[in-house]
Each structure stands twice: as structure tokens, then as C-alpha cells.
């Protein structure tokens, strides 16, 4: 089974097109105003119009309220990635759209929280836990100890995120067995500024996993 990749936090036609051309299986759009990757509903509508049917579109949220979620779903996104969202809320959202539940990881106990999302999510996304008080739940280039995922039974299909880049993604895949990886800051030249060359290099490395 080949390893696939989601390029997250896209905001321009050029970088979206690069992600698709170089083989991304999913593209992600951030709906979280404090993030430098935050996009408007109009931006996302225009970007989704460029996405071919074989590439999945994912909206990224931090415990969204109903107003934000409904407006974002109207853009045409096919799935939602939920950070800091309870299993109960995730299950309610899943009645409307497929759900990726993000688990912030620093310890083995954090990884164990994934089991609570059985039946409430379609996929788990293991991401690095950000420092206490951080404004963002991810996209900070942090990684966690990948050994925490080794030989671990998984309750759901899952993806690996957190501090990945072209230089370490093969090591990450080899150590965890991830079949889907998710990158944001690792393909940027500055916070929120995606780099076409870095996207190409990352996806080339993923293809070699």
C-alpha cells in the first residue's frame, strides 16, 4: 500500500496546483482566524474548483461552532479535521460529514485517547502537542516521539502529522508504519507561506517511502 500525503494550510492557486501536480492525495484548508494559514470561505470555494475528483479536500477546525462549520461546509469541503473537539461533538458532526479527529501527542497516554473516537470519527490524525498556552493547536513544526506509535493497535485508520518535512518523512514512515502523512509548516518558507519547491520535495520523498 503506497504512502499518501495531505498538504495542509493551502491558500493560493499556485501552491494548490503544485500539491496536486506532485501527487498529494488530500489538500487542507484552515478555518481558524488566529492561524497564519486561515482562509476565507470565498478563497476556499475558488480553490476547491481547481481540485480534481481524485484529491480529497479537508477543512481544519478548532472545536468549531455551528455557524462556522455550516458556512465552511457550504464551500464544498469533503471532510473535516477537528482539533480540541470532544468525541461527542465529533460524532454529531460526523452525521453530516466525514471526520478526522486530531490527537495531540506527547506521551503514550495521549495516544490512548484515540480509542474514544471509535464510532465518532473516520480517521485519527496524530499530531504533536503544542506548548501550554500556545495560540495554535498545530502547524508549529513540532514533532513527537514516533516510537509511541510503534506496534500499537489502532482503533481507526490514521495519519501522522507534526514536524514532518522532506528530510525526515521517510524516517517517520519507517518508524511508525503510517500510510498517510500530513504536512503544513514543513513545506513553508515562512509561517503561512507555502513553498512550491518544498511541496515538490516533500511529495517526492513520500513517493520513495
Automatic annotation (TrEMBL):
It catalyses: N-(5-phospho-beta-D-ribosyl)anthranilate = 1-(2-carboxyphenylamino)-1-deoxy-D-ribulose 5-phosphate. It comes from the Bacteria. Pfam families: PRAI. The keyword Isomerase applies. Keywords: Amino-acid biosynthesis, Aromatic amino acid biosynthesis, Isomerase, Tryptophan biosynthesis. Residues 5-204 form the N-(5'phosphoribosyl) anthranilate isomerase (PRAI) domain. GO terms for molecular function: phosphoribosylanthranilate isomerase activity. Its EC number is 5.3.1.24. Pathway: Amino-acid biosynthesis; L-tryptophan biosynthesis; L-tryptophan from chorismate: step 3/5. GO terms for biological process: L-tryptophan biosynthetic process. Belongs to the TrpF family. NCBIfam families: PRK01222.1-1. This is N-(5'-phosphoribosyl)anthranilate isomerase.
Amino acid at each position: 500500500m503506497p504512502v499518501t500525503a495531505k498538504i495542509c494550510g493551502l491558500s493560493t492557486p499556485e501552491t494548490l496546483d503544485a500539491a496536486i501536480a506532485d501527487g498529494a492525495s488530500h489538500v487542507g484548508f484552515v478555518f481558524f482566524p488566529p492561524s497564519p494559514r486561515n482562509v476565507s470561505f470565498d478563497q476556499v470555494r475558488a480553490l476547491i474548483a481547481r481540485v480534481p475528483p481524485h484529491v480529497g479536500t479537508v477543512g481544519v477546525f478548532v472545536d468549531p461552532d455551528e455557524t462556522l462549520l455550516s458556512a465552511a461546509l457550504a464551500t464544498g469541503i469533503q471532510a473535516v479535521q477537528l482539533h480540541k473537539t470532544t468525541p461527542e461533538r465529533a460524532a454529531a458532526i460526523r452525521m453530516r460529514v466525514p471526520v478526522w479527529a486530531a490527537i495531540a501527542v506527547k506521551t503514550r497516554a495521549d495516544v490512548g485517547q484515540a480509542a474514544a473516537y471509535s464510532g465518532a470519527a473516520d480517521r485519527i490524525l496524530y499530531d504533536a502537542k503544542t506548548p501550554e498556552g500556545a495560540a495554535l493547536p498545530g502547524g508549529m513544526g513540532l514533532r513527537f516521539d514516533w516510537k509511541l506509535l510503534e506496534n500499537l493497535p489502532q482503533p481507526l485508520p490514521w495519519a501522522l502529522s507534526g514536524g514532518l518535512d522532506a528530510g525526515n518523512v521517510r524516517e517517520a514512515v519507517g518508524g511508525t508504519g503510517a500510510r498517510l502523512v500530513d504536512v503544513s509548516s514543513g513545506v513553508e518558507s515562512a509561517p503561512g507561506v507555502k513553498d512550491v519547491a518544498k511541496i515538490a520535495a516533500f511529495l517526492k520523498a513520500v513517493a520513495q517511502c
